[in-house]
Amino acid sequence: MAERFNRKDKIMQKRFLLAPVLCLSLALAACSGGGDQGQGGPPSLPVTVSQPLVRDVTEWDDFVGRFEAIDSVEVRPRASGYLQRVHFADGQYVRAGQLLFSIDARPNQAALDQARAQLARANATLANAKTEFARSATLAASQAASTEEVEQRRAAVRAGEADVAAAQAAVRSAQLNVGFTRVTAPISGRISQRLVDPGNAVSADQTVLTTIVSTSPIHFSFQGSEASLLGYERRGDKLDGAPVRIRLQGQQDYAISGRIDFVDNALSNGSGTITVRAVVPNPDGKLRPGMFGQLQLAASAPHAAIMVPDTAIVTDAARRLVYVIGDKDVVQARPVELGPVIDGLRVIRSGITAKDRVVVGGIQRAMPGKPAKIEAGRIGADGKVVPAKAAAKPASAGAAAGKGGAQ
After folding, report:
1. Residue 114 lies in a domain
2. pTM, rounded to two decimals
3. Domains held by the chain: number
4. Which residues of 168-200 are buried (b: 16+ CB within 10 A; e: fewer)?
5. Which residues does residue 213 pair with via DSSP β-bridges, in sequence order?
6. Cα–Cα nearest to 121, from 171, 172, 155
7. Which of 298, 317, 339 is at the close of a domain?
8. How far apart are CA 82 and CA 326, in angstroms?
9. What's the domain range around 400?
10. Residues near 373 by beta carbon (within 8 Å), at least 6 away in sequence
């Protein structure tokens, strides 16, 4: 029994010792909480505020398309026969007139020799006919030959001349066939792989031996929207000849420049788009047909635009908002009309002015209708937000260095 009472006494003593500590903690918490509520002050963590960036920009419409060769040719033989030799390496650059394939020319050469023999026979026959005609004409002058015989000799000469002309044409045709056994490049460009190996028979105008595509300049085709087309017409701009810039997949900069050289005459009934094509210089041949890219077409003339970081845009249902600091540092939600993103900055067409203080950092801590603790910042040209204190540090350091150097 005595031990039980001693245990109870110890428990009571511990409770009495803890009670003041708990009361002190509750009192401190109540004081701190009551102080915040009584003051109605801003949150302890600040929001970063900056005026919008204003600079001259050109707005662009974005389109996806791909490069296409201006000229694309399927190389086919003009003469039939067996392929003897290939004179190029797969994928190399070839020039117009360069020898690509050789076809066995012996049958065609034999045909040429035969045609030349026929021409020689025709010339001999014609020479004999002319001699007979001259003799009969002389005899007719002395009335030793009839007029009918003279006319027959004259007709024989004319027939001989026709035979010679036919034989000459046959020789030219045979010469062409011999020349056709040498298959040359019809255009300059990059050649594909050979599709027929030596030893195989090829048919004139039928067998595809390889393909060649031109490389410079090169086309970039894309589908333009009806809205873009109408926008150009409303501004009075001429789409044909308009400058464009292109970037390839995986690239950040639009380093490729070109100009529109073709606009189709009608919109597609299904998609409501129109085929537009730009011509792009390609002196080094790095741009190849079939490559995809993103094209930008100027949608406006250069103009001064109000810009904020894209991260400063807040979505509320169907609206786009920007938080602006008003009187007494109260946060206001301003509906804005958005433009495109240029170099990481969003163009704001309407809703704010260049003098407004826009929340560009700590947006999740900004509560519309309530005051906010403010930290001044600055929007960089790259779209990044830099606190004003951090931005001033390099300048201060430079000034200190200058003073040290002067001493």
Report:
1. yes
2. 0.65
3. 3
4. bebbeebbebbebbbbbbebbbbbeebebeeee
5. 72, 190
6. 171
7. 298
8. 87
9. 47-59+303-406
10. 41, 42, 43, 44, 45, 46, 47, 329
Q: Is the peptide bond before 217 cis (omega within 30 degrees of 0)?
A: yes
One DSSP character per residue, 186-246 reads SS-EEE---SS-TT-EE-TTT---EEEE--SSEEEEEEEEHHHHHHHHHHT--STT-EEEE
* pLDDT surpasses 90 at 207: yes
Domain check: are 279 and 311 in the same one? no
Residue-wise DSSP of 22-76: HHHHHHHHHHHHHHHHHHTPPPSS-EEEEPPEEEEE--EEEEEEEEEES-EEEE-
Q: Which of helix, strand or coil describes residue 113?
A: helix
pLDDT digits (tens, 9 = 90+) for 73-94: 999 999 999 999 999 999 999 9
Q: CATH number for the domain including 220?
A: 2.40.30.170
Please tell me the total number of residues recorded for the chain in this structure: 407
- The domain boundary, picked from 278, 298, 318, lies at 298
* Cβ(276)–Cβ(266) below 8 Å: no
Instruction: List for the chain the helix, strand, coil content (%; round to 5).
Output: 35, 35, 30
Q: pLDDT (tens digit, 9 = 90+) per residue, 341-388?
A: 888 899 999 999 999 999 999 889 999 999 999 899 988 877 788 877
pLDDT in tens, 2-49: 444 444 454 444 444 444 444 444 343 444 444 444 445 554 688 999
- Is residue 294 classed exposed, middle or buried when 0-12, 13-18 and 19+ CB atoms within 10 A define those classes? middle
**CATH number of residue 130's parent domain:** 1.10.287
Decide if 223 is inside a domain: yes
